[in-house]
Design goal:
Blueprint: E1 2-3, E2 15-22, E3 31-38, E4 43-47, H1 54-61, E5 67-74, E6 77-78, H2 84-90, E7 92-95, H3 107-114, H4 122-132, H5 134-138, H6 149-161, E8 167-171, H7 179-194, E9 198-202, H8 206-212, E10 215-220, E11 223-228, H9 230-235, H10 237-244, H11 247-253
Parallel strand pairs: 4-9, 4-10, 7-8, 8-9
Antiparallel strand pairs: 1-11, 2-3, 2-5, 5-6, 10-11
The protein binds adenosine-5'-triphosphate (ATP).
GO molecular function, one term: branched-chain amino acid transmembrane transporter activity
Protein name: ABC transporter ATP-binding protein
Keywords: Amino-acid transport, ATP-binding, Nucleotide-binding, Transport
């Protein structure tokens, strides 16, 4: 567990935001020196109180909110304030929370739109998406507007994946879904992550987010207040006081492989190695 701005000796970051100061209006900063790093293969969750700047951080990483100072890098290359189309070309995929599909286009047309920068790979990428999302293949000629919330979320992710991004930025993928569909979305996201795509997602469902992600960031007032594994965050008294409330107990109860006699591990800082189920759900 670290507190405040994170620095790391590692040099293999996939995407990194360093001390980002950003906002929507001149003179009004929403992010006040916010940092986040995602390493190869990681799935990162961003949680925090309402208005903390979680979505703004994702948007700043995707060039949708002006970064006034600080830097965003992809594989060490500066991508700060690049336009969204350049970022997509470079390897960043972004799925906004709403309006993330073209409702009057078919599912297949939506996926074609996702690859308009590289049409020569269409057949190959469509096949990969049908593999990942069989339900989309079955309904490929239907209008996207006819999809359920969970299916639409799948299509939005598939569209972003058409360009084979190094990192997928997801803004509240479980928003508006029933608990069952939320869980399917989390597990599907973990599955996508296991195909080699780094995932950074903002989530309101902090409990589930901390269970399934490799690491989390707790944002507060536009800063990365805390970072650590889900278990570290869920058990940190300061994080609980700031945001989580009774969450630590919930996360602990969700453990299915809790061996007898390991009660001391519940204390923050007594980490033991992760155990991971095939669906990617951490249960340590
Ligand atoms: N387009 C915008 N123009 C001006 N201010 C905005 C805009 N979008 C967000 N804000 C402001 O930025 C602040 C942070 O918003 P943001 O959506 O990043 O928070 P969040 O942590 O994602 O919150 P929530 O959990 O409620 O979605 C809020 O005070 C919000 O009012």
């Amino acid at each position: 567990m670290t507190s405040g701005t994170t620095t790391s000796p590692r040099t293999d970051a996939v995407i990194e935001a360093k001390d980002v100061v950003a906002g929507y209006l001149p003179g009004v900063n929403i992010l006040n020196g916010c940092s986040l790093v995602a390493y190869p293969g990681e799935m990162i969750g961003i949680i925090g109180p309402n208005g903390a700047g979680k979505s703004t951080l994702l948007k700043a990483m995707f060039g949708l909110v002006r970064v006034h100072s600080g830097q965003v890098t992809l594989h060490g290359k500066d991508i700060t304030n690049l336009k969204a189309n350049r970022l997509v070309e470079t390897g960043v995929g972004f799925v906004p929370q709403t309006n993330n599909v073209f409702p009057t286009l078919t599912i297949e047309e939506n996926l074609r739109m996702g690859l308009f920068l590289r049409p020569q790979k269409l057949t190959e990428r469509l096949a990969a998406m049908w593999d990942l999302f069989p339900v989309l293949h079955d309904r490929r000629r239907q209008m996207a507007g006819a999809l359920s919330g969970g299916e639409r979320q799948s299509l939005a992710m598939a569209r972003a994946l058409m360009m084979e991004p190094s990192v997928l930025l997801l803004d509240e993928p479980s928003a508006g879904l029933s608990p069952v569909r939320q869980d399917e979305t989390f597990i599907r996201t973990r599955h996508i992550n296991k195909t080699g795509v780094c995932v950074v997602m903002v989530e309101q469902n902090a409990r589930r987010c901390l269970q399934i992600c490799d690491r989390g960031y707790v944002l507060d007032q536009g800063r990365d207040a805390y970072t650590g594994t889900g278990r570290e965050l869920a058990n940190d008294p300061k994080v609980i006081e700031l945001y989580l409330g009774t969450l630590a107990k919930d996360v602990e109860e969700a453990r299915t492989d809790k061996p007898a006699g390991h009660e001391h591990d519940k204390a923050a800082g007594h980490e033991h190695p992760h155990h991971q189920h095939e669906d990617g759900v951490h249960t340590d």
